[in-house]
């Protein structure tokens, strides 16, 4: 794999901040976009912009074809059975809210249990708390251990016939842990629960085959996989989607409207009310093609090498404590440094042109577990290099010296 | 352009490592909590104000970054023995300094040592770290029921 070639695909990387070359290590927050994605979005607005699914004119037909071609690209990437199972949303958060509202509203009642894990992002906690408040259902949490792995024994014990849904993050954004979702899905199905997997962090790093996993709902966001912001996907079993009521009402999700009655549109359109983020969806499809052209296996292999390189340096760095040391993890190095608050690290590193994230990573319960207010997090992507990891640790040494 | 050294001056590092007036004040007749939901900084300020409206005692507890800890430490130092009216004047001057145009010089005469925090205005994401303690102190003086927040 030629990293220089890959880096040349990302125009944003080639700039200086404060006289130093940009080192972008905040990929878990959002990845950068390759030229091909920028180009298709631009091409759409320059040549094809029009509304989809209704115009008879040429531009609308071109826009519709490009939009629906993205759906097929994404279906193939996740190996969904049919494009009816691929629903475009604003992102992972909206996908989860859609499930909680539509599926949850129809299937969850008082005394039912929703099971999530201690390492969920707020977006896979709060919608379920809101559903529990509305319905009287109970939210249960699978604990984790000091390394940032789920307690699988406790998980087995928490499962019961009251468990109606298991919501689990595929890869933790705060810790990097990759959870054993295959086993968890099987166990949850054995008690009759449906399973939602939050793939926001995983989908750019781990191969996902929704049929092999037999997962009921898989959700992710385009912008964490080299695509535009404001667009994501919900992939769900057709039988579940057909039984679910619409999430939002409006244009595009109907076949026939009278004041007496409305007939809803077929899947997937039933869940795509209103004019969607057409350019975003087209960009999403192009981003997936970019990943396919390199090969997700190769990406994962390269990222593992880089994470190992960074982890070795982290272990040798005086006063650094890693947060999240699971055996199965990817691309995330979360840590605290003795005597330097993560936010000060963030500021100091920024002036060295090293972009990291400092904070609670929208996973406050994880911070509470480790009893830290925040962590610093460097997260890697396919375009990062060993030299950039070196720049990170040189900047960390500088920060440590400032507070020495 | 401000450099990192302008933000993390020796005085600030010193107050971070050994914050002054740190710990609970007992007894106290005013106190308040402050919270920055963006970064998780938490602060508790305790005050003893006498009948003549003089701040006889002022201490703080909590956890936060260097800027928020140093700012709280410097604030308690500069207000001990001062009147509530002095606080109000300093509050306005500090707020002005933290949010002023980059070209404006801080009001050194009013602010004294607090002027070392002028560097934050070059770092927009950090201004609230410096101002949290001031808002919290205002809540304490006003006996506000709700914790002070930066958002």
Number of domains of chain A: 2
State the major sheet of chain B. Answer: 4 strands, mixed
Distance between the termini of chain B: 27 Å
Based on CA atoms alone, the radius of gyration of chain B comes out at: 14 Å
Distance between the termini of chain A: 41 Å
Compute the number of strand runs of chain B. Answer: 4
**Shape, per Cα inertia axes of chain B:** globular
**Strands of the biggest beta sheet of chain A: in what spatial order?**
4-10-9-8-7-5-6
Oligomer: heterodimer
Largest interface: A-B, 18 and 21 residues
Main β-sheet description of chain A: 7 strands, mixed
Q: What class do helices, strands and sheet pairing of chain B give?
A: alpha+beta
Helix fraction of chain B by DSSP (H/I, runs of at least 4):
40-55%
| 3D shape of chain A | globular
β-strand amount of chain B: 15-25%
**Proper CATH architecture of the largest domain in chain A:** 3-Layer(aba) Sandwich
CA-atom Rg of chain A in angstroms: 22 Å
- What's the average pLDDT of chain B? 90
Structure description:
The complex is a heterodimer of chains A (404) and B (151). Chain A is of the alpha/beta class. Chain A folds into two domains: 3-30 and 295-402, Alpha-Beta Complex (Aspartate Aminotransferase, domain 1), CATH 3.90.1150.10; 38-293, Type I PLP-dependent aspartate aminotransferase-like (Major domain) (Aspartate Aminotransferase, domain 2, 3-Layer(aba) Sandwich), CATH 3.40.640. Chain A contains 14 helices and 17 strands. Chain A has helices at residues 3-8, 35-48, 58-78, 92-107, 126-135, 152-158, 181-190, 210-213, 238-243, 278-294, 296-316, 342-351, 364-370, 386-402, and strands at residues 16-17, 20-21, 23-24, 86-89, 113-117, 138-142, 163-169, 194-198, 217-221, 232-236, 254-257, 262-264, 320-322, 332-337, 354-355, 357-359, 375-379. In chain A, the strands form five sheets. Chain A has a seven-stranded mixed sheet with strand order 4-10-9-8-7-5-6, with helices on both faces. In chain A, helix 2 (35-48) packs antiparallel against helix 10. The radius of gyration of chain A is 22 Å and the shape is globular. By secondary structure, chain B is α+β, with helices and mostly antiparallel strands. Chain B has one domain (4-141): Alpha-Beta Complex (Sufe protein. Chain: A), CATH 3.90.1010. Helices cover 41% and strands 18% of the residues of chain B. Chain B has six helices and four strands; from the N terminus they run ααβββααααβ. Chain B has helices at residues 4-7, 10-17, 66-79, 84-99, 108-111, 127-142; strands spanning 30-36, 41-49, 55-63, 148-149. Chain B has a four-stranded mixed sheet, covered by helices on one side. In chain B, helix 2 (10-17) crosses helix 3, helix 3 crosses helix 6 (127-142) and helix 4 packs antiparallel against helix 6. The mean pLDDT of chain B is 90. At the A-B interface, helix 12 of A face helix 2 of B.
